[in-house]
Amino acid sequence: MAGLSLSNLKKTYGKVEVIKDVDLEIGHGEFVVFVGPSGCGKSTLLRMIAGLEDITGGELRIGDKIVNQVQPRDRGVAMVFQSYALYPHMTVYDNVGFGLRLNKTPKDVRDRKIREAAQILQMEHLLDRKPAQLSGGQRQRVAIGRAIVRQPEVFLFDEPLSNLDAALRMDMRMEISKLHQELGATMIYVTHDQVEAMTLADKIVVLNAGVVQQVGSPLELYNRPANLFVAGFIGSPKMNMVEVSVETAGANAIDISGPAIGRLSLATEASGIVLGDKMTLGIRPHDFQQVPEGPFKGTVTLVEHLGNETMVSLKLANGEAMIAALDGDTTCAIGETVSLDFNRDKVHLFDSGGQRRG
Amino acid sequence: MSNKQKSLQSHPLAGWLMTAPALILIVLFLVGPFILAFGFSFTNQRLISPNPTQFVGLSNFEQLLGVGVLTLDPERDDAGQVVLDAEGQPSYPRLRDYTRNNPDYPQYDGMREWFSFSTGDARTYVLARDTVFMKALTNTLLFVIIVAPVQSGLALLLALMINQKLRGINVFRTIYFMPVVVSIVVVSLLWRFIYDGRNGLLNNLLEFLTFGHFQPIDWLGNPDTALFAIIGMSIWQAVGFHMVIWLSGLQTIPLTLYEAADIEGATPWQKFRFVTWPGLRNTAVLILVVITMQAFALFSQIDVMTNGGPLDSTQTLVFQAVVRGYEQQNIAGGSAISVILFLLVLSISLIQRYLTRERT
Prior knowledge:
The structure holds two protein chains of two kinds. In chain A, the strands form four sheets. Chain A has a six-stranded mixed beta sheet, with helices on both faces. Chain A has helices at 42-50, 92-96, 98-102, 107-120, 136-148, 166-183, 194-200, 218-223, 228-233; strands at 4-13, 16-26, 31-35, 57-62, 65-66, 77-80, 154-158, 186-191, 203-208, 211-216, 240-249, 253-258, 262-267, 278-283, 288-290, 296-305, 309-316, 321-327, 337-342, 348-350, 356-357. Chain A is built from nine helices and 21 strands. Chain A folds into two domains: 4-233, P-loop containing nucleotide triphosphate hydrolases (Rossmann fold); 240-357, CATH 2.40.50.140. Chain A is elongated, with a radius of gyration of 24 Å. Helix content of chain A is 23%, strand content 36%. Chain B is mostly helical. Chain B has two domains: 67-129, no CATH class; 132-355, MetI-like fold (Orthogonal Bundle), CATH 1.10.3720.10. Chain B is 58% helix and 6% strand. Chain B is globular, with a radius of gyration of 27 Å. The interface between A and B is medium-sized, with 23 and 18 residues. Chain A: Belongs to the ABC transporter superfamily. Chain A: Keywords: ATP-binding, Nucleotide-binding, Transport. Chain A: Residues 4-234 form the ABC transporter domain.
């Protein structure tokens, strides 16, 4: 069984750098999710691990072996594709047993393993069918079955749920999570859906433009995003960002002001923050409360009642837009003026370079 | 709603009117001749003749397809010994005595020897009423049997090679496709020079490669090599066309299937066997049927290169149909050959479709 180690991993297509010096340690048995917007290089990174893309520079180890030049089949990985990549002319049974057939596993062993995998995925009744006779979710099950039957050390999932509808996606998400617990294997999962990332991962790797932005547990990323990109990417609805400048910088507190909020005092470790710095204040929509008189005042532009909470979109006096997640029984109408305060302990401050401060 | 005049396109006859040019041409030059050929094949129609056309039933087909088997014992002397000829071979009664005006064997009247073989002392003669037609039939079948598998296999090989992502691969695609673009008549003329018996390119090449030990062959003038020379050239000429069809089939196979196979541990051969070949099923059926039909229609090469000779060794069905219909002015005979060819190709295509059908 194996962990992975990526050091200085690079990938270029001609002059275009798509993966820039990625360093990453993945422990054995960890569920790691690569997340990021389209084109951030997350799939490329996964395919480099699988051996489907050449590695331009750096070192990739699976277990304690450097595998840069190793053929995909010898890396001990299995992969589940977004398009399922099932063989249309083969039955489910043959699809699942394809790898075993290729490496000439005896027929009885093969049969036992295929049936075991089918049992784990509850698809024993599908074994005689062809992929064309299956629904999307069933096809994905078969693709996962093909991966687990070979008992690989590392599972790679490339956006496996993107082609499924919302309800099915949630079911399959839970099944994959269950599967991870049962098999205890290392899994690497690529998605652009941050909900999938948050729910599945032991460790999330946020990528943007081929650069790792932050690595951490889902709650770390949510509570202490390392930079503006992660702050904006993780969490739904998106974190509100307000431009502010530093008025006074004490030892444990700073005063900030901005056109949207007036002047505010925040308790924070202010080392390195100096007077006049331009900063970004980040407030999650869920950290707002409605108050009679607060720092934020705005006109309601949209109200969405979700039952357990109400999403209120505001337009502040200076024209900036803001979203607040308020109580489910909040009553306000479009055009009304609402006053908001926020949880001072949970604010995020970023310097002008977008890096987290305090 | 605007009060615009109703568009002419919505007139009930508009559709027919628009398809009319194509429809008329198809009826005039495809459907019409097809039906006429069927009709003529049951008559004694001639190209130009003062006599009225008569319905003759199946006699054209009987004339073409009539065969008989005659087994003759060797001639024996009074002691019962087999009479040997000057070369020590047993001698047999003259075939003519049986096939010309012999009241005991009316069924063989007018037949000629097609081929013969010996069983013990006896010799069995297979007789045909029209040996040239039989020769054409067997030549055509031989042509199809060789060309269909070799050409489709070669085309697949080229397609697989050309499907690589390499720099300059388009140059090769162009080269392989070039003979298809050139008229078959031009190609045939060129290959007559290549096959030339004295100074042909092929003879020169073979002489060069064997350091002069190779004796030049008149490829098209020798009954043993003429048909094979034409087969070789025909395969070369159309292989590019089928390569392109294979290529289009190859490119419909999703790349992820190969990637999945890579990860599952497939060797290049296993990838071909389990991914490529099953993915090419429909293409394979198409190519097989198309090549078979094209091969049966062999005509231009023969017309330009050999005219059916030498010694009828390159006669083919279509060539015979044309020769009879126009050179011998026997439209009925030519039509009958066309009808036989049609039934032959139809039944072979149906058999191919049945054999390659989707099994569920």
